[in-house]
Amino acid sequence: MTVAHVASGIHLLADLDGVAVAALQDATALEALLQHAARQAGATVLFSHFHAFGDGGGITGVVLLAESHISIHTWPEAGFAAVDIFMCGGADADCALQVIERGLGATRCVRRSVARGIDAKQICGETP
Q1: Closest Cα to residue 20, out of 97, 74, 99, 82?
Q2: Is residue 4 part of a domain?
Q3: Is position 3 within any domain?
Q4: Domain harbouring 96, CATH code
Q5: Residue 38 domain-assigned?
Q6: pLDDT tens digits, residue range 33-92?
Q7: What's the whole-model pTM score?
Q8: Catalytic residue of the set 36, 73, 95, 109
Q9: What backbone phi and psi angles, to 5 degrees, belong to 25?
Q10: Domain of 103?
Q11: Is 95 among the residues known to form the active site?
Q12: Of the candidates 24, 68, 26, which has an alpha carbon nearest to the alpha carbon of residue 44?
């Protein structure tokens, strides 16, 4: 008999538009913002790494959490950032996204949410 695993976390994908160029090129500030967002969401920061793609280029960064991760990829030339937030346990992914969206001053946010894990009803052949 297979034991069902109930969805154990929320995975948010967010496209942020209308962000100031300077905010998308500052790796130190982005790292601080994502760590702050994680803490505000009730997550535990384990490690982070951010990489700048040269003068005028974007940033790629990840904050590793005990509850999973937050990552960001920026395109300053387009005023755009792609943010990925996966949190399980008591951490609040929505809270983290709100902190990041406000911190970057985005004028628009397109958000997608996915429950991660296998839903027990789907294993039994039922539809949710």
Answers
A1: 74
A2: no
A3: no
A4: 3.60.90.10
A5: yes
A6: 999 999 999 999 999 999 999 888 999 999 999 999 999 999 999 999 999 999 998 999
A7: 0.86
A8: 73
A9: -115, 0
A10: 9-123
A11: no
A12: 68
